[in-house]
Request: fold
Amino acid sequence: MSPLPGFLSVRVLRGVNLVSRDATGSDPYVVLHVDGQKVKTGVMKKTVNPVWNEDLSLAIKNAETPIKLEVFDKDTFSKDDKMGDAEFDIEALMQIIQMDLEDIRSGTVVRTVRTSKQSCLAEESQIIWENGQVVQDLLLKLRNVETGVVHLQLKWVNIPESGLQFMNLHDRYRVDCR
Reply:
């Protein structure tokens, strides 16, 4: 699959029934990892049902590389406690991105991704053409814990051709000032 000019926008919507790691309630946050990148949400105080509704961005080099999600409980005086992890891939989303969908009605389900034993999907996930964008909602079942689900919404954001030309010029004439 050829690299696409754009990036993945991951909206971390909420966590449901996360494990409690502290007597006074957990302070969860989400970390996403892919291709050496690490991005994270803010911390939600004293809840096992956090609502983050935060947008994180990832540059995707290889659509076949799974994205790792981890949930942690923020601790003040000790190492943050792990509240579970999951992985998800974006191969199906990236395949749909390359299709010409302009003539399709907004709200159309373009593909359904089914759960499997290897996947962390809590239920099947639909990829939808919505207002000129390809959107995928995911409910991820957390591993290595008793309970917990994280709800994400994925969108591919194209970089217009003029933006690519600017980025190429920037890379070409970059000066390292040390």
